[in-house]
Queue: 4 jobs
Job 1
Amino acid sequence: MASVTLLTVWASPFSMRAKLALLLKGIEHEDLPQDLGNKSKLLLESNPVHKKIPVLIHKGKPVPESVIIVQYIDEVWPETSPLLPQDAFLRAKHRFWTDFIDKKIFDSLARFMRSSDGGAAVNEEFIQNCMLLEGALAELGSEEDGPFFGGASMSFLDVMLAPYSVLIPGVEQVMGLKPASPEQCPRLHKLFGAVAEHPSAKAALPQIEKLKEFIQARFARK
Ligand SMILES: N[C@@H](CCC(=O)N[C@@H](CS)C(=O)NCC(=O)O)C(=O)O
């Protein structure tokens, strides 16, 4: 096994985060794609509590949970592309909004995907959550500094959010999600545009067309 190995599923937004952090920092690694319908002994032993991907295995030691993995990567390889801010208060902000993405953005999107009534109410909730994130972009940095939470370069919070740049259009085009408009969330749209152009993100995130096929097969309403 390579010194750095990632147990992954390509369509998982959580896997995408870990992959993106490794690529941003130029860390040589091996991907071990997992079948969640038939979990490998390695996955069960590496993440016995949650039995979920992603898991980063570094020198034989397993680190589960995408948020913890990306923080671990940033601590172990701090020199290239530092992700978390130096300032403790800003670090707290990045962690707060990461928690918001996982608890509110992901949750409202997942509920939309599972909804049996067309999902209009939960779609509105999703848009309101995106507008709160838009407020965080304005609060944490000026547009002149660059498109990302980290200004000109991707930061921790950008890595946490980047998978949504493919997930949202995928769910929009397959399941009819109405995303927040460029008028409602101008900075968020610019951020997603910049993610789409970023070389590491291009390599870490799947093509929207491929993701659409996955969403269609797994989640589309019959
Ligand atoms: N909080 C976890 C979530 C990971 C997660 O939900 N992984 C899903 C795939 S997207 C999984 O492994 N599911 C397998 C299962 O629930 O049995 C993280 O951030 O890494």
Job 2
Amino acid sequence: MFVTLNASTKAAEKQVSQPFRSVLREPLPEESLSYKVDSVGIHLKGPVFEYLVDPNTGCITNLEVRRDDEKVIQLSEPVDLILDDYRLSAKQNSGETVLEFKSQHQVILKTTGLLKPQANNSSAIPYTLQSTFFDDGVVVSKVTLQPKQDLVIHRNVSSRLSAKGKFHSYLHKRRDQHGMGSQSGSLPPTGKALPLTTLTSCLEVFSPEAALALFTDSGATHLSKAGLPTAVINITQNDGVTADVVLEQNIINISEGAKPYLMKAGEELTFRTGLSLAPNRVPHPRNSGLRMFTWAGDQKHPYPTHQEILDAARLGFTLFQMHRPGTPGKPRPPAGEMKRVIQQVHDAGMLFIWCTMADMMYESSEGVQQMREQNQWKLWQGFNYGGHYQPHMDPYCNMTATCLSSPNGLAEYRLKTISEMLDKFAVDGIYVDDNLAYPSCPLHQEHQHPHPVYDSLIELHDMSWRRRKLMMEKCPHVVLIDHCTTAMVLPVMSAFDMHLYGEGYGSPSLENYWNFFGITKSLNGQGCLWPGDDENTRTSAAIVYNYDLLTGGGQYSYLDWRLYPKKFPYAKGVADEESLYIRTYSTAQANFGIYESQPYIFAESEKLFSTSTPQTYATIYRNRTWNDYLIPIANMSSQAQTTSLEIHQPEAIKLKQDQNYLVFDVNQHTSKTASGADVSSALSNLEIPGGSLRLLYLRPVSDSHPMHLWGGKRLSESWDAAQKSLRFEIDGPPGLQETIYIANCRQPALKVLVNGQPAAFALDASQGIAFGTVTFTETPLQIEVITETEKGSCLPLEKIKPDQLFLHQHQK
Ligand SMILES: [Zn+2]
């Protein structure tokens, strides 16, 4: 059992929701690594995975990864190192493993042994293997071969990972590129192999359920000729959901008959190889509710005003990132503004995120200045962006490139600034910009890179993991966000909770989008779609919400440059209606409580439900606390289309046959009632604008008394039969005005009180829905509906109007 019961899941039984602002601050589930030795071997157990190591060889002989109670990855053979006829896993090898280091989060094992050949015609090869296991599932092994006699390698030196798991796609990152545009696609069919010939860094297989990667810092160190495979994926079985895969990366590869590779006696061959896996931790309940707003500002307006912070919260955002805040802990001038901003972000119910870059630092930072003064700059120097970056609208951001490996004390300096930041400011997380394994560092000797061309993948993970541990210690609810763009490289993303991708570039087809970016779900992470700033190409907000709501929600982020284009005229292609889409769909997700819900994603639910028209798609979210549903039905065609949603297996999505449901159109504000057996009837012949969606909400109705239907996040609700009054509690961003809809209002003799005060509500008699506008505050609103009132207290009759987005879409 790996699911940790937290307050929000416990509340499910009582139909009480926690306000999201407190869910945001629930500590992260436990992340640790336990170490145990028994007669079977050395067990290293993380939150959802367990490694088994053979102490005789240091070989990883087993690995299991679980998602909830289901095993999603299982090794089929030991993780092997192969040198012609030698195998690390071979029984005849002899050696000894000692525990070099152990903490609650990391274990280092060191094996000293002899690789022995199958037949006794060759000599044994002394080796050491130092394996570092991290609590995020990553393991990095440093292999050193020390032959006592000349060793002639005729075929190859390689690492091999054989596993069965929920994989349908692959990605291959090169050591000489940063990872965007990595070769990727569907796994080959049963019995087929996929050889790769580019300079291999990381080879991974994945699906939204699970992922597994094999990586090395020394891929293709020696090939007998160009064009030989550097890596290969062999598929022994693939049914489209589960695959048996063998991943191999070659350190040395020699074609048949070519000149062998000679290792002289006394020479060493050293390389590092590693694994990364997903899921690697227990999901946090806040995940899909994490919606990020970015404040980039400019030199004139580096800090947001109070009103601008409130604007972001009222658009439905829950994370507020300052993109150019200065070195961690040393806010940019006027530095006194930082405490105000953080306090106001918190008061508005959001978390505050400080942005840093994976390899750039402020020129003004103490560490950079010191290294320059001491003439030691080369030890940290990097070369991205030509070594220097300074945006024209914000010269304070005079950034200098440092090496991605964070060598020679740079990692420690970076961590020190974060530690100081957390001592001084109530920062809730970090966004790491450009978190890509770049290969561009010509100072490989000064920085101890293993090869002149190296992507620092292993050190990048190490730095990210150390940052995570440091921040979790000081901020148990920390949110760590990486900017991975289209480089979905598992060990690079492993130590993060959110992954920002997209950049407003044209998106692939929906299925490909889900198959590719779905890897964030395998990590139990939250995706984050960047709307684009000064790039020329982008996807419209309407279409992005099709992607967002069909693939889990909460992903579309936004930024000040787009929200205030007059004040910050730097973003391209800002459309007037963007904020209308954001407010509408973010609020809908917040109101429904998408963080409490189970999604049934379109691509994986064809047997459960389907739409009737090509290019239309639906995903269904079921709220676990309230047993209600949110259903986006999207039209990917640019033309308006009519479609129906047919639910084939209502019981599979927990719709009850004998239960009545009120089906409410979130934008049009119309309602229908349908039985669970026949919900499809209320979901038929839906007209959907081109490139947009319809959003339907289903709530079970069992009694004839009034009930809260829509508007605000419902936290609790109770009907007092004796008093004939309904009480419910709703929450929303402070200052946001929203219309509240109350169903089952059969007669106008009603009184609605908001925080005890009579409120101006009206009744749409044709729908039996009372409605009125409320303004949210920093604490939830108490609403009371009294159905038997003294004479003369009747709601005025009025027809409900559609929302602004609906009117906007239908005004043409
Ligand atoms: Zn370097």
Job 3
Amino acid sequence: MSEPKENSKILIVDDIQTNIFVAQCMLDGCGAEMLTASSGEEALSIVKETELALVLLDVHMPGMDGYEVAQIMLANEQTKNIPIIFVTACNVDSEHIFKGYESGAVDYLLKPIDQRILRSKVNIFLRLDKQQRQLKTKHKELQKAYYDINKAQSELARSKKLASIGQLAAGVAHEINNPLGFVTSNTNSLQSYFNDFKMLFQLYRALEQAIVEQKPEAAVHSILKDISKSKQQLDFDFLLDDIKDIFSETKSGLERVKKIITNLKVFSDAEVEENSSIGIEQCIESSLWLVKSQIQKEFKIEKSFCKDVELICNASHIKLALMNIILNAVQAIQENGVIRISTEIRDDDIIICVQDNGVGMEQEVLRDIFNPFFTTKAIGEGSGLGLSVSFDIIKQHNGDINATSRPGEGSEFVVTLPLARTTDKVAATSS
Ligand SMILES: Nc1ncnc2c1ncn2[C@@H]1O[C@H](COP(=O)(O)OP(=O)(O)OP(=O)(O)O)[C@@H](O)[C@H]1O
Ligand SMILES: [Mg+2]
């Protein structure tokens, strides 16, 4: 442990200056700073202002005696723990000794003082004082370290949220690229079909003009021949069917993009609207969708949701919390993976339950899952922050999260959130 910066302090209290001088000489070189007081009143004003390792207190003094000084010190929160050694000239009977201990003395010394006894007793208290001050310094250092760790932890949690959003952006880019690909290819086909139709339309126009202008029959025939040739080449029936398909495919692609954008919007809106009202079903669907956009895996999903339940919450954070839980479940499942998500109302709470039939967890793992950086995944596969972020978010919403698991059988996460508002009709549906 590091050495305290200042020397320990001893207060010597005696109404006779010679006694003080003798005690000072005896303690010379003990490593402590010596303060003196010649009355009880003076001693009290010093003890209130100074951090002392020990008070050597004469019992018999005119005015306030040693017992009185000790009792006042004992009654004061600030001074009650300062050790006192009574110094007395009289023969100490057991009644006096008891009175002294009752008023807060830790020891007695008889006059004339034996230097070896005085120094060895004082040394014990100086050692204690040194240790106590070292502990105080350590305590302060630990408090600061604790504060720094907490600060670093919340900064990490924040960066994990940002990282999740980054991860999400990558997933979203992939999701958008797919429909964008076929919408672009469909647009190219439509462009080429349009050119074919345009050419045919121009032929019909030329035919109309030839008839109106009463051009020779041969000219009209030649245009009619071009028209029938083009029609043969274009395969109209196929074109019309294909255009119909192209439109419906393009429409569904654009709808997918629209859905992606709606989901993403919730994230950007959330920073603005801390406490919005959101349907819990929509919240879960969104989280599920976010998971699916990040992980390509086949699994069965079973849902059982209460209808029309609304929460007042930071919607993006709740979605992120649920997304982390569902993502873990999807990562845990293997072949024939099933994930069950259900909601239930209990008193004034909504209970959201996410169950999987994945690898499950041993008790030692389960104990630590909400701790930041705890992960059983390989380096680069998991940062161990997902559940700690979920935990923080749910606690911030005055909710609770619990997990149970059986190795080889699966896990269940139960999130409890206080309900903001429920409508009258709460009906369970399954899909
Ligand atoms: N449904 C689950 N089934 C089995 N193990 C789980 C499940 N959920 C969590 N765990 C365990 O809890 C650990 C901590 O989960 P957490 O989500 O905090 O971190 P991670 O998934 O390892 O990494 P990150 O989420 O930061 O990418 C996981 O590594 C895993 O061992
Ligand atoms: Mg995780």
Job 4
Amino acid sequence: MTITQATEEDLPLIRDIAYQTWPNTFGEILSPAQISYMLEMMYSLDALTTQINEKKHVFLLAKNTDTDEYLGYVSYELDYTGQPLAKIHKIYLLPASQGKGVGRLFIDQVGAIALAHQNTRLGLNVNRYNKAIQFYERMGFLIVGTEDIDIGDGFLMEDFVMEKPLIP
Ligand SMILES: CC(C)(COP(=O)(O)OP(=O)(O)OC[C@H]1O[C@@H](n2cnc3c(N)ncnc32)[C@H](O)[C@@H]1OP(=O)(O)O)[C@@H](O)C(=O)NCCC(=O)NCCS
């Protein structure tokens, strides 16, 4: 397995992985209409291009080097809102690639990159009903807050804010 930084050329692939992963992740949490709305908002090629070029989000891709198949992605932003905090915006693995240790590798890699940039915490938002919360707790994240975010069209994101201190 390799982890490499994505470029603009990889954005269609990232979008495809999201479209394969979201129904499985959020099918029992969000309405089909909200899933479609959020996918368009966050994963249209325009939205992804803005994230990578203007918002300074960095995407990493995991690839199975035996089969050449991509397994999933993580995106992060260093110095989030001027704080020494690396914000993980997205972390998604294809359903068949979950539970095999790749998520842990992503968190470890982003943590190492963050520390090398003097960022001393990892932060993220997670839907309050997503079982990924248990994964994050296992990785050393703690719930530090609750946020309800109005994303338009009558839809709400009901999140926990989680953080993990990084130890140099
Ligand atoms: C959440 C996700 C990134 C985790 O990555 P993963 O590769 O499946 O997790 P790992 O195999 O690296 O698991 C690491 C540890 O967390 C534990 N863990 C993972 N998911 C868990 C869960 N749902 N409940 C309890 N523990 C869990 C594992 O048992 C493992 O523990 P161990 O080190 O003691 O063996 C991945 O499952 C995923 O993409 N899920 C769907 C998308 C999603 O919800 N993304 C998060 C959006 S905020």
